[in-house]
Amino acid sequence: MAKLVNEFSWSVSRAQLFSECQRAYYYTYYGSWGGWEAEASERQRLLYILKNIKTLPMWAGSIVHATIGEALQRYARSGQAITAGELQARARTQLRSGWVEAVNREWLARPKKTNLHELYYGNGQSLPPADTDGLKERIYECLAAFAESAVLRELLTVPYLNWKPVDTLDTFAIDGLKVWCAIDFAYTDPAGVLHLIDWKTGAENRESLTTQLACYALYAAETWFASLDRLRLQGVFLREKARVSDYPVGAEMLVDAKDRILTSAAAMRQALDDAQANVASEARFPYCENERICRRCNYRQACPYVAGAGP
Question: Are 215 and 12 in contact (CB under 8 A)?
């Protein structure tokens, strides 16, 4: 089996981490690389474990997205009805199995197993009932809103042939730069308009969502040859009863998005020892020195700044 190569690429999440804390960015995309290998150093292995930690809100979001994606795929295959009760039951199974993985520290042998920030940096065994009850309530609320939404009712009237792949990670290129993208859902309505949808389990941040949806539009134009006048970009905010927020799409939006992506990628490459080979060294990526960010960072155990050594 060929050894994986750490290639440079760009994504919305990668850019957000780089702007938030460059040291955490280094740990995620360089320091942890190869941490899954049997011959990995102790440091690589630790960073790889820390990279895969999820906070409770992140875990909730991943469960909601996975449950919705699986339900849509089941409907496409068998026509199985999508109900709040069914979605919540499947999410409950994921919650239980994930909690067992986290408490039993199964991630020590298999770092992709569920590892929760609040447990890892807590007592490892329990959380306040208010936190666990709130997590379950958040997930159930989002799934009920999805099941009862006008968006779901509309997309279920669309023939399956008009659906695009559900929540599938893919790439496209901008001036030779590999850009990662995973559209939550997309379909073409009877009028020929392509809807690009992003399910949201948190609050609306128009700046970050504009960039994300612009990436969706660029991907759709590159991969599906979609025309701008036939695109509709939508954020669906599940905790707000599946409120739909439309984002206007036009040439100016896409040009601006391209510029921001290329500028962001250039800043990332500038920090590298060798941009061509995508080689980086830790010292070139400064700490953010922001207590609020450091407190919720996955790398608290590994970062010298958080541990008290300072820059």
Answer: yes
Task: Pull the structure tokens for residue 202.
Answer: 């948190």
* Helical spans, DSSP H, in the chain: 12-20, 22-26, 42-51, 56-78, 84-103, 117-120, 129-147, 150-155, 206-223, 251-270, 291-295, 304-307
Across the range 40-49, mean pLDDT stands at: 97
Q: Is residue 309 scored above 70 in pLDDT?
A: no
158 residue type, one letter: V
pLDDT tens, residue by residue, 192-212: 999 999 999 999 999 889 999
For residue range 109-159, list pLDDT tens digits in order. Answer: 999 999 999 999 999 999 999 999 999 999 999 999 999 999 999 999 999
Q: Residue 18 in contact with residue 264, Cβ under 8 Å?
A: yes
Which CA distances in Å does 222 have to 13, 29, 41, 140? 21, 26, 40, 36
H or E stretch covering 170: strand 168-174
Helices and strands counted in the chain (H then E): 12, 6
Going from the C-alpha of 8 to that of each of 55, 143, 218, 264, 280, the distances in angstroms are 26, 36, 19, 12, 11
For residues 229 and 252, what is the distance between their CA atoms, to the nearest angstrom? Answer: 13
- SS3 assignment, position 285: coil
| Percentage of the chain lying above the pLDDT 90 cut | 93
Q: Is 90 helix (H, G, I), strand (E, B) or coil?
A: helix
What's the whole-model pTM score?
0.94
Encode 19-41: b = buried (16+ Cβ within 10 Å), e = exposed: eebbbbbbbbbbbbbbbbeeebe
Structure-token pair, residue 193: 């308009």
